[in-house]
Amino acid sequence: MSRLFVSDHPLIQNKMAMLRDENTGAKDFREIVGEVAMLLSYEATRDLPLKDVQVQTPVAKADCRIVDAKLAIVPILRAGIGMTEGLLRLMPTAKIGHIGLYRDPNTLQPVEYYCKLPVDVAERTVFLTDPMLATGGTAEAAIGFLKEKGVKKIVFLCILAAPEGVEKIQKAHPDVDIYAAAYDEKLNDHGYIVPGLGDAGDRIFGTK
Ligand code: URA
Question: CDD domains, from UniProt (predicted)?
Fold first, then answer.
Protein backbone atom coordinates (compact mmCIF):
# COMPACT_ATOMS: atom_id res chain seq x y z
CA MET A 1 0.00 0.00 0.00
CA SER A 2 1.35 3.40 -0.92
CA ARG A 3 1.89 5.85 1.91
CA LEU A 4 -0.09 9.06 2.30
CA PHE A 5 2.01 11.73 3.96
CA VAL A 6 0.04 14.77 5.10
CA SER A 7 2.13 17.59 6.49
CA ASP A 8 1.49 18.88 9.99
CA HIS A 9 4.25 21.49 9.76
CA PRO A 10 3.19 24.86 11.19
CA LEU A 11 4.69 26.81 8.27
CA ILE A 12 2.77 24.70 5.76
CA GLN A 13 -0.46 25.08 7.73
CA ASN A 14 0.03 28.84 7.85
CA LYS A 15 0.59 28.93 4.10
CA MET A 16 -2.45 26.71 3.50
CA ALA A 17 -4.64 29.24 5.32
CA MET A 18 -3.43 31.88 2.86
CA LEU A 19 -3.98 29.61 -0.15
CA ARG A 20 -7.51 28.77 0.92
CA ASP A 21 -8.45 32.41 1.41
CA GLU A 22 -10.51 33.56 -1.57
CA ASN A 23 -9.02 37.05 -1.19
CA THR A 24 -5.48 35.86 -1.94
CA GLY A 25 -4.58 37.16 -5.40
CA ALA A 26 -2.75 35.32 -8.19
CA LYS A 27 0.71 36.72 -7.43
CA ASP A 28 0.64 35.66 -3.77
CA PHE A 29 -1.17 32.40 -4.56
CA ARG A 30 1.49 31.41 -7.10
CA GLU A 31 4.33 32.24 -4.72
CA ILE A 32 2.78 30.33 -1.84
CA VAL A 33 2.07 27.27 -4.00
CA GLY A 34 5.78 27.30 -4.87
CA GLU A 35 6.78 27.59 -1.21
CA VAL A 36 4.47 24.79 -0.09
CA ALA A 37 5.74 22.61 -2.94
CA MET A 38 9.33 23.29 -1.86
CA LEU A 39 8.59 22.40 1.77
CA LEU A 40 6.73 19.24 0.71
CA SER A 41 9.56 18.16 -1.55
CA TYR A 42 11.86 18.29 1.50
CA GLU A 43 9.73 15.52 3.00
CA ALA A 44 9.24 13.65 -0.28
CA THR A 45 13.00 13.35 -0.82
CA ARG A 46 13.70 11.92 2.63
CA ASP A 47 14.16 8.35 1.33
CA LEU A 48 16.52 9.15 -1.54
CA PRO A 49 19.53 6.84 -1.62
CA LEU A 50 22.94 8.19 -0.63
CA LYS A 51 26.50 7.27 -1.48
CA ASP A 52 29.70 7.88 0.44
CA VAL A 53 32.18 10.42 -0.89
CA GLN A 54 35.24 12.14 0.47
CA VAL A 55 35.48 15.91 0.29
CA GLN A 56 38.59 17.98 0.90
CA THR A 57 37.71 20.82 3.28
CA PRO A 58 40.21 23.69 3.79
CA VAL A 59 41.35 21.72 6.86
CA ALA A 60 41.14 17.98 6.18
CA LYS A 61 39.37 15.23 4.29
CA ALA A 62 35.73 14.77 5.36
CA ASP A 63 33.57 11.70 4.88
CA CYS A 64 30.33 12.92 3.33
CA ARG A 65 27.26 11.50 1.68
CA ILE A 66 25.57 12.72 -1.49
CA VAL A 67 22.33 11.80 -3.22
CA ASP A 68 22.78 8.75 -5.40
CA ALA A 69 19.78 9.07 -7.69
CA LYS A 70 18.86 10.79 -10.94
CA LEU A 71 15.80 12.96 -10.44
CA ALA A 72 13.01 14.32 -12.61
CA ILE A 73 10.13 16.67 -11.91
CA VAL A 74 7.04 16.07 -14.03
CA PRO A 75 4.15 18.52 -13.65
CA ILE A 76 0.76 17.50 -14.99
CA LEU A 77 -0.43 20.36 -17.23
CA ARG A 78 -1.47 22.95 -16.47
CA ALA A 79 -1.68 23.47 -12.71
CA GLY A 80 1.23 21.15 -11.88
CA ILE A 81 3.58 23.73 -13.42
CA GLY A 82 2.86 25.95 -10.43
CA MET A 83 4.74 23.51 -8.20
CA THR A 84 7.80 23.01 -10.45
CA GLU A 85 9.81 26.02 -9.31
CA GLY A 86 9.46 25.06 -5.65
CA LEU A 87 10.77 21.55 -6.26
CA LEU A 88 13.61 22.90 -8.38
CA ARG A 89 14.76 25.06 -5.48
CA LEU A 90 15.69 21.88 -3.60
CA MET A 91 16.56 19.74 -6.64
CA PRO A 92 18.20 22.21 -9.02
CA THR A 93 19.76 19.54 -11.26
CA ALA A 94 16.54 17.58 -11.76
CA LYS A 95 15.37 17.25 -15.35
CA ILE A 96 11.84 18.44 -16.09
CA GLY A 97 9.18 16.69 -18.15
CA HIS A 98 5.56 17.61 -18.85
CA ILE A 99 2.43 15.52 -19.26
CA GLY A 100 -0.88 16.89 -20.57
CA LEU A 101 -4.10 14.90 -20.37
CA TYR A 102 -7.70 15.59 -21.24
CA ARG A 103 -10.80 13.56 -20.61
CA ASP A 104 -12.43 12.18 -23.78
CA PRO A 105 -16.04 13.40 -23.60
CA ASN A 106 -17.37 10.12 -25.06
CA THR A 107 -15.31 7.48 -23.29
CA LEU A 108 -14.50 9.69 -20.24
CA GLN A 109 -11.03 8.12 -20.40
CA PRO A 110 -7.94 10.32 -19.93
CA VAL A 111 -6.12 10.87 -23.24
CA GLU A 112 -2.53 12.10 -23.45
CA TYR A 113 -2.29 15.27 -25.61
CA TYR A 114 1.24 16.25 -24.64
CA CYS A 115 4.15 14.30 -23.29
CA LYS A 116 7.76 15.43 -23.27
CA LEU A 117 9.97 13.60 -20.83
CA PRO A 118 13.73 13.40 -20.22
CA VAL A 119 15.18 10.77 -22.57
CA ASP A 120 16.50 8.75 -19.64
CA VAL A 121 13.31 9.14 -17.58
CA ALA A 122 13.16 5.37 -16.95
CA GLU A 123 16.33 5.67 -14.85
CA ARG A 124 15.06 8.60 -12.79
CA THR A 125 13.05 9.01 -9.63
CA VAL A 126 10.09 11.04 -10.85
CA PHE A 127 8.33 13.63 -8.69
CA LEU A 128 4.93 13.98 -10.35
CA THR A 129 3.04 17.15 -9.42
CA ASP A 130 -0.56 18.29 -9.54
CA PRO A 131 -1.86 20.67 -6.85
CA MET A 132 -5.29 19.04 -6.52
CA LEU A 133 -5.74 15.29 -6.07
CA ALA A 134 -9.51 15.31 -6.50
CA THR A 135 -11.08 12.28 -8.26
CA GLY A 136 -7.58 10.99 -8.94
CA GLY A 137 -8.40 10.10 -12.57
CA THR A 138 -5.72 12.34 -14.08
CA ALA A 139 -3.03 11.36 -11.60
CA GLU A 140 -3.83 7.68 -12.00
CA ALA A 141 -3.49 7.98 -15.79
CA ALA A 142 -0.31 10.08 -15.62
CA ILE A 143 1.32 7.54 -13.33
CA GLY A 144 0.25 4.81 -15.77
CA PHE A 145 1.86 6.70 -18.69
CA LEU A 146 5.10 7.13 -16.74
CA LYS A 147 5.17 3.43 -15.95
CA GLU A 148 4.61 2.63 -19.65
CA LYS A 149 7.76 4.66 -20.35
CA GLY A 150 9.63 2.43 -17.94
CA VAL A 151 9.71 4.67 -14.84
CA LYS A 152 10.07 2.54 -11.74
CA LYS A 153 10.13 5.08 -8.93
CA ILE A 154 7.35 7.67 -8.81
CA VAL A 155 6.39 10.01 -5.96
CA PHE A 156 3.21 12.06 -6.25
CA LEU A 157 3.06 15.55 -4.73
CA CYS A 158 -0.06 17.66 -4.36
CA ILE A 159 -1.14 20.63 -2.32
CA LEU A 160 -4.56 19.25 -1.41
CA ALA A 161 -5.79 15.65 -1.45
CA ALA A 162 -9.34 14.33 -1.25
CA PRO A 163 -10.20 10.83 0.02
CA GLU A 164 -11.53 9.74 -3.41
CA GLY A 165 -8.25 10.59 -5.16
CA VAL A 166 -6.06 9.03 -2.53
CA GLU A 167 -8.08 5.82 -2.64
CA LYS A 168 -7.86 5.67 -6.42
CA ILE A 169 -4.07 6.06 -6.46
CA GLN A 170 -3.55 3.63 -3.60
CA LYS A 171 -5.64 1.03 -5.40
CA ALA A 172 -4.21 1.50 -8.90
CA HIS A 173 -0.61 2.27 -7.94
CA PRO A 174 0.20 0.90 -4.49
CA ASP A 175 3.90 1.54 -5.13
CA VAL A 176 3.45 5.32 -5.44
CA ASP A 177 3.65 7.40 -2.26
CA ILE A 178 1.52 10.54 -2.00
CA TYR A 179 2.66 13.76 -0.31
CA ALA A 180 0.03 16.39 0.45
CA ALA A 181 0.04 19.66 2.37
CA ALA A 182 -3.53 18.98 3.54
CA TYR A 183 -6.16 16.25 3.33
CA ASP A 184 -9.70 17.55 2.87
CA GLU A 185 -13.07 16.11 3.60
CA LYS A 186 -14.71 15.32 0.26
CA LEU A 187 -15.54 16.31 -3.30
CA ASN A 188 -18.67 18.26 -4.19
CA ASP A 189 -20.97 17.42 -7.13
CA HIS A 190 -18.72 19.39 -9.51
CA GLY A 191 -15.61 17.47 -8.53
CA TYR A 192 -14.19 20.32 -6.45
CA ILE A 193 -12.41 19.56 -3.20
CA VAL A 194 -14.35 20.77 -0.11
CA PRO A 195 -13.46 23.04 1.58
CA GLY A 196 -10.55 23.17 -0.88
CA LEU A 197 -9.18 26.33 -2.41
CA GLY A 198 -11.09 26.58 -5.69
CA ASP A 199 -9.59 26.01 -9.12
CA ALA A 200 -5.85 25.81 -8.55
CA GLY A 201 -4.92 26.39 -12.20
CA ASP A 202 -7.06 29.50 -12.49
CA ARG A 203 -5.74 30.89 -9.20
CA ILE A 204 -2.08 30.19 -10.11
CA PHE A 205 -2.33 31.70 -13.57
CA GLY A 206 -4.91 34.40 -12.81
CA THR A 207 -7.27 33.15 -15.50
CA LYS A 208 -10.45 33.77 -13.54
N1 URA B 1 -9.12 20.86 -9.47
C2 URA B 1 -9.04 22.08 -8.87
O3 URA B 1 -8.37 22.97 -9.36
N4 URA B 1 -9.74 22.27 -7.73
C5 URA B 1 -10.48 21.31 -7.16
O6 URA B 1 -11.09 21.54 -6.10
C7 URA B 1 -10.54 20.05 -7.80
C8 URA B 1 -9.85 19.86 -8.95
Answer: PRTases_typeI
Give this complex's ipTM.
Answer: 0.95
Q: How many CB atoms lie within 10 A of CB 91?
A: 21
Strands (E), the chain: 4-6, 50-56, 61-67, 70-75, 95-96, 98-103, 110-116, 124-129, 132-133, 153-161, 177-183, 186-187, 193-194
**Largest Cα span, the chain:** 68
**CB-ligand 1 contact for 199 (6 Å cutoff):** yes
Q: Is 69 annotated as a binding residue?
A: no
135 is in an annotated binding site: yes
Closest ligand 1 atom, residue 200 Cα: 3
